[in-house]
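User: Please fill in residues for this 130-position structure.
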């Protein structure tokens, strides 16, 4: 029975890692294609932040999948060396996730302030025209 659980866990870990890989690949292609706009025209700070925020959200999701796979993998680790390696990887991914989330929060705040400033400027301009 134990061997069956280990085998199933290994396949589940592989599947979760594949999902994370897919998410990272799609996000990277999407960010790259969006950034190509900057080659042919000037991207506004607002648009650059929008691209970065979308990419960062995808990366946070992928890191969460990878962390889930690490947790499952640690349940079937057979020796201390494997467990220590997994723990180190999990700590690194957790820190990456934390700092990405922090950057996302700051980016959202900047984006919101920028949108509010644009909205106020639009209202001020329409009030002058009236």
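Assistant: Residues filled in for all 130 positions:
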């Amino acid at each position: 029975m134990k061997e069956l659980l280990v085998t199933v866990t290994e396949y589940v870990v592989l599947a979760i890692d594949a999902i994370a890989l897919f998410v990272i690949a799609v996000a990277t292609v999407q960010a790259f294609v969006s950034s190509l706009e900057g080659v042919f025209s000037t991207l506004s700070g607002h648009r650059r932040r929008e691209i970065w925020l979308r990419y960062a959200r995808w990366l946070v999701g992928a890191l969460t999948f990878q962390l889930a796979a690490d947790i499952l993998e640690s349940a079937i680790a057979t020796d201390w060396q494997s467990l220590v390696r997994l723990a180190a990887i999990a700590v690194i991914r957790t820190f990456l996730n934390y700092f990405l989330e922090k950057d996302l929060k700051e980016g959202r705040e900047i984006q919101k302030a920028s949108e509010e400033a644009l909205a106020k400027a639009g209202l001020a301009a329409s009030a002058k025209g009236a």
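For context: The first helix runs from residue 2 to 40.
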